[in-house]
Structure to design on (198 residues):
């Protein structure tokens, strides 16, 4: 999930890390194998804003495992989003090639 | 580094993982602490293309450590990009909040 940077956007990183991510883990267990959160600091050029204020990574054994877990848990998770942001996240499903 | 998806873009994932990433690690050592590569499979909606065909993560102890290492090594790394893609990557500097 990638949260695009916007100058006037609201994003509560404390709530995201301390409340939302634990909720995600509780809701998607046991399928979810790990989570990570990155906070965007800057783009590549000096003084440039980051493309994303936050990027979170949710790790599953397979796309199928993710989809099954998300089918039953997505409502709980999506309902919590307004509690920390007014940004609509970009969703991307990726395969880990190198780690 | 995020490589935006484009229908007609060229991206050689084998070269990227087997040649480019080892080059990155050799060039930026000892500052670089880890690398990871994700291959974009899909977006969030059924049948949707991923936003990025590839996302790589380079881990450093600090922004300063990254900038110093990249100052001297960037030319070698950037010169190798045409060998695997014609996509211009998006650069984002992030801080790990949760891992």
């Amino acid at each position: 999930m990638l949260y695009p940077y916007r100058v006037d956007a609201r994003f509560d990183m404390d709530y995201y890390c301390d409340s939302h991510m634990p909720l995600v883990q509780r809701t998607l267990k046991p399928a979810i194998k790990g989570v990570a959160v990155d906070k965007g600091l800057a783009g590549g050029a000096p003084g440039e804003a980051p493309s994303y204020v936050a990027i979170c990574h949710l790790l599953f054994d397979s796309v199928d495992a993710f989809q099954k877990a998300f089918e039953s848990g997505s409502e709980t998770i999506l309902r919590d989003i307004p509690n920390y942001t007014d940004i609509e996240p970009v969703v991307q499903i990726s395969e880990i090639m190198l780690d």
The CA atoms of residues 42 and 49 of chain B lie 5 Å apart.
